[in-house]
Write a structure and sequence with these properties.
- This protein is an all-alpha fold and about 325 residues long.
- The protein has one domain.
- The protein is about 65% helix and about 0% strand.
- It has 13 helices and 2 strands, in the order H-H-H-H-H-H-H-H-E-E-H-H-H-H-H.
- A hairpin with a 3-residue loop joins strand 1 and strand 2.
- Helix 3 runs parallel beside helix 11, helix 5 packs antiparallel against helix 6 and helix 9 runs antiparallel to helix 13.
- The chain is globular, with a radius of gyration of 20 Å.
- The protein starts with a helix and ends with a helix.
């Protein structure tokens, strides 16, 4: 019995990690295509039909590029930082329920685990900026640490209302609590009673991803490439893999907490879940193609003076309604 359980768990891990890494590769193609369409240009179109082999070509190119390490960099930390960014992004999926019986492990503190693991990613970014021994990289790392710490508060508070409404920290139980409908028409998704919390979650998660309009950690016009300025070859690729894996994780978490997870009529549960995740990923790409970057003082002011009070107000209103 134990061997069967271990084998099933290993197979689930292999399947989830394989799908996530494949999705990460093709998200680069999707983002370039979508932004290309929005800006009335082609995007990848040369390598393979519709440019579908472009991610493979990019991976081969990065594997064979020269791996440069700055002469005065802290070599050990410089090498470890990309892995320290990617690993937390991947292990988040250990508790994400893709379907009613398709979750690697269901723990009763699943949501707490997600936030604990996600908060580790900032260490990789900060250490990359410091170990590079470059002023641009250091400024990017410092910006990112301040930004992620600031917006983690409102991100965590935005889901407190969902936890209070559902009465559980287990992601599976949160999805199961959204089954059924009101009056046979409106799905019992948490987005309806917690719409304000959903908006705060959406903005905060976009800021946590360091994506436009919150991409101050990279800010090409100011910092060249921010914390990964000195990185090349596959170490450079690991940072981008971490960003896209985090984007998938943010979409999966939003779908789980607010849009009923795998719940939906007619289609198989896993398909419903993937469609909801794709909708969030498309939204993140759309925001990048549409909105200009914040100034850094605007970014910090918005996090502390707007989102944080709004998230606290949402918690108090939810508590009052439940009481």
């Amino acid at each position: 019995m134990m061997m069967e359980f271990l084998l099933a768990t290993v197979l689930k891990i292999a399947l989830v990690m394989g799908l996530v890494l494949l999705a990460v590769a093709y998200l680069t193609w999707l983002e370039r295509k979508v932004i290309g369409d929005m800006q009335v240009r082609f995007g990848p179109s040369r390598v393979g039909p519709f440019g579908l082999l472009q991610p493979i070509a990019d991976a081969i190119k990065l594997m064979f590029k020269e791996d440069i390490i700055p002469a005065h960099a802290d070599r050990v930390i410089f090498l470890l930082a990309p892995a320290l960014t990617l690993v937390p992004a991947l292990i988040i999926f250990a508790v994400i329920p893709f379907g009613p019986s398709f979750v690697i492990t269901d723990v009763n503190i699943g949501l707490l685990y997600v936030f604990a693991v996600a908060s580790l990613g900032v260490y990789g970014i900060v250490l990359a900026g410091w170990a590079s021994n470059s002023k641009y990289a250091l400024l990017g790392g410092l910006r990112s640490s301040a930004q992620m710490v600031s917006y983690e508060l409102s991100l965590a508070l935005s889901v407190i209302g969902v936890v209070m409404w559902t009465g559980s920290l287990s992601l599976v139980e949160i999805v199961e609590g959204q089954a059924g409908s009101w009056y046979g028409i409106v799905p019992r998704w948490n987005i309806f009673p917690q719409f304000f919390g959903f908006l705060i979650f959406l903005v905060s998660s976009n800021a946590e991803l360091n994506r436009a309009p919150f991409d101050l950690a990279e800010a090409e016009t100011e910092l060249v490439a921010g914390y990964h300025t000195e990185y090349s070859s596959m170490k450079f690729a690991l940072f981008f893999m971490a960003e896209y894996a985090n984007m998938i994780a943010a979409g999966a978490l939003a779908a789980t907490l607010f849009l009923g997870g795998w719940q939906g009529p007619f289609l198989p549960p896993v398909i419903w879940f993937l469609l909801k995740v794709f909708a969030f990923i498309f939204l993140f790409v759309w925001l990048r193609a549409t909105l200009p970057r914040f100034r850094y003082d605007q970014l910090m002011r918005f996090g502390w003076k707007v989102l944080l009070p709004a998230a606290l107000a949402n918690v108090m209103v939810t508590a009052a309604l439940l009481a």
